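COMPLEX REQUEST
Ligand: heme C
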Amino acid sequence: MKNVSIIGLLVIGLIFQNCKNNKTQPAVLNNDEIETIEIVDILESEKEAETKWIVPSNFKKMKNPTYATDDNLIIGKALYTKHCISCHGKSGVGDGPKADEFDSDIGDFTSKKFHSQTEGTIYYKSYVGQHDMPNYEKKIPGTNDMWLIVNHIKTLERQE
Ligand code: HEC
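STATUS: Structure written out below.
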């Protein structure tokens, strides 16, 4: 009889435990809530593409030390073709062969929004990178080469 009541107590204890677990369930987000949060995140990242990527103000204000002469544009295009085309694509829309490997928004170098950024911002993002965007500080030594790439990228803006 004693054993039975101990087992009985255990069973009641287990049931009680289960109820408690069930009660804590609503604190966990359900699928709808998670989806809403993700949509809000996407909207915010579209609105704040620039703030999402924190660019130091001294870089934002940087002046391009090179000029977009014909010769410089030829070098810039060659460097862009060598280093950047595999992800950003020839036209800069982000359709390079490797672009599908990433979830992050690779950007569109032909859009007005992209070109509303300062050259210093484009330079910083290109040089330092983040997430899936590689860092080029070692791969492209000599800062002028990256500015020559920026000159080329500036020519990619879509004319509407
Ligand atoms: C391996 C693929 C890859 C290569 C190669 C690559 N990028 Fe990127 N790039 C990315 C990805 C992915 C992002 C988006 C990163 C993010 O937002 O977190 C990005 C973002 C950028 C941005 C910011 C876009 C925006 O909307 O503001 C610039 C500028 C940029 N890359 C320039 C370059 C330049 C210049 C090169 C070549 C020197 C280059 N990238 C090579 C993958 C690449």
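REMARKS: Residues 49, 83-84, 86-88, 98, 102, 104-107, 114, 122, 125-126, 130-134, 136, 149 surround heme C (CB under 6 Å). The two ends are 88 Å apart (CA to CA).
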